[in-house]
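Sequence only, no structure available. Ideas?
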Amino acid sequence: MPEEPSSTHETAALIALLRRGDRAWHHYAEIVEARGSALAVLQEGAPDELDVPALFPPADREDIDLDAIVAAIDGWRAEGSSVLTVLDERYPQNLRSIHDRPPLLFVRGALIEADERSVAVVGTRRATDAGIAHAGEWQADSSTRATPSSAD
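Reply:
I predicted one. Tokens follow.
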């Protein structure tokens, strides 16, 4: 199901905030949820930034190319991935309850209600041999239980 254009721009704004790297990635989940808009945070600053006077606005805020990020999102979709943010209704409820929840998720396939009690192994682009072996052992062990799992 394709996202609405405004939703795509919200996603792009959240990705821009993450790329800017002003704070830890998990802080953006709270800030964007509290504000209700990643675009507002990107354009106006986070609530704790609004009351702090600055001599100069950060230069990199003007350099953000949301259209390029929207094009990247469209490319990810064309490859079969969707991007969910903490503002999306489809963002998994079980993740909303964790302290350092990810501000966005890349999803291949469908999220279904049965996934509510599932576990996913989130990897790295530079996985070690030991890490790959551990994830495989964990998945093999968890497959004998009644909990759906996925390892990538």
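The first strand starts at residue 81 and ends at 85.
Hope that gets you unstuck.
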